[in-house]
Amino acid sequence: MPHSNLNTLLSADALERVRAPLSQAWTLPPAAYTDPAVYALEEDRLFARSWQCVARVDQLKAPGDFITVDLPQHPIVVVRDLSGDLHAMSRVCVHRAMPVASGCGNARRFVCPYHNWTYELNGQLRSAPMMDGAEAFDTGAWRLAPLRLEVWQGFVFVNPDAEAEPLAPQLAGLDALIARYDFAELEVAETLHFDSPWNWKILTENFMEAYHHIGTHRQTFERVYPARDASVPDNGGAPWSFLHMPGKHDEAGPTSFPRLNQDERNALFAACVFPNFLFAASSTSGAWYQLHPRAHDQMDLEIHILLHPSLREAMSDASLKEMRGMFHAIHTEDIEANAGPWQGLQAAGTRQGRLSPFEKSIWQLNQLWLDTLTAATSSA
């Protein structure tokens, strides 16, 4: 069973240093990344109660389109039913716990491969063979367990917590910052897959600071998006962070976002909806980094390249291959910025470090992490 109190896992002094104002703040202590018990607490108190992005609406265009996702402790299926409505639900059969769907595809119903129990696309049990002798068994009383679902900017979010606050009102400030980007019009053009044997927070932190441009990306991003020009607005404690990176170039090429002003066309931004929804955009494309935490030391990553359909249609296969190669090259640089700290965090002498003022997003996310875990444990 996971611990019910963060203070039994991390020292009060360490947490106090994290809570300090940014100019005085420290990183999370190493155990926040390396201790399996902390990850168990995150599964129980964070991922089980947070909005998590699982799909794009363009991946679920037609009635019957479905996609399966493994959230921590929650294997689910997301599907568009025959009326066009989206549903998210457990994909675990209510009979003997066999998954009723895998991968992605199109279906009229979900049929459990074990005993042929059959479910409608909204999760309602339709039939259960050879149950005639089971007393008081009513197919109408059984269904795949539903999850809360919201669509924001074309991204499909789910939440295992039936009592969770709606997502969209919490992101009003972020909406204002990306108002001219029209993410809802984009579609997934390419997906890259990476095995990532480290804690999920390492990648999240790396994604949300430009400070590492001066080292990791000194020959790539630093030349175009200098670290010293980056900024992070206040979020008022809302569950998001936004990293703005002005560019030292005049972008005038094809764009997926025709409503951008020139400053926005020249810039790059990265954003996080807490805890682990990461997305970014330049004028040409958007990107969604889909994190799949598996354990304290394991995560799978899918990088989805997002393009406006008109731009994708105009691009040659060679141009798309070149774009895919660029994303792969940048993340290859970032792999070292994830693998190195993961190794270092497990060293016996490693302690908390000081945050730079250029790591404001990390500070914001650390506050949200502490708020969520301590609030959840205090009410458990």
Please supply descriptive tags for the structure shown above.
4-stranded antiparallel beta sheet, Naphthalene 1,2-dioxygenase Alpha Subunit, Chain A, domain 1, alpha+beta, 380 residues, 10 helices, 2 domains, Rieske Iron-sulfur Protein, globular, 6-stranded antiparallel beta sheet
Provide an overview of this structure:
The protein is α+β, with helices and mostly antiparallel strands and 380 residues long. It has two domains: 6-50 and 167-378, Naphthalene 1,2-dioxygenase Alpha Subunit, Chain A, domain 1; 52-159, Rieske [2Fe-2S] iron-sulphur domain (Rieske Iron-sulfur Protein). The chain is 26% helix and 24% strand. It is built from ten helices and 16 strands. The chain has helices at 12-19, 31-34, 36-45, 172-177, 200-207, 221-224, 262-266, 309-314, 317-345, 360-378; strands at residues 52-56, 65-71, 74-80, 86-90, 104-106, 110-111, 118-119, 125-127, 148-152, 155-159, 187-196, 240-245, 268-273, 277-281, 286-295, 298-307. The strands form four sheets. The chain has a six-stranded antiparallel sheet. A four-stranded antiparallel sheet has the order 4-3-2-5, with no helix packed on it. A hairpin with a 5-residue loop joins β3 and β4 (86-90). The longest helix is centred in the last third of the chain and has 29 residues, at 317-345. The mean pLDDT is 96.
What number of domains?
A: 2
Q: Rg, please?
A: 22 Å
Largest sheet: 6 strands, antiparallel
The CATH homology group name of the largest domain:
Naphthalene 1,2-dioxygenase Alpha Subunit, Chain A, domain 1
- Roughly how much helix do the residues carry, as a percent range? 25-40%
CA-to-CA gap between the ends?
13 Å
Beta-strand level of the residues, as a percent range? Answer: 15-25%
Order of adjacent strands in the largest pleated sheet: 11-16-15-14-13-12
CATH topology of the largest domain: Naphthalene 1,2-dioxygenase Alpha Subunit, Chain A, domain 1
Topology order in helix (H) and strand (E) letters: HHHEEEEEEEEEEHEHHEHEEEEHHH
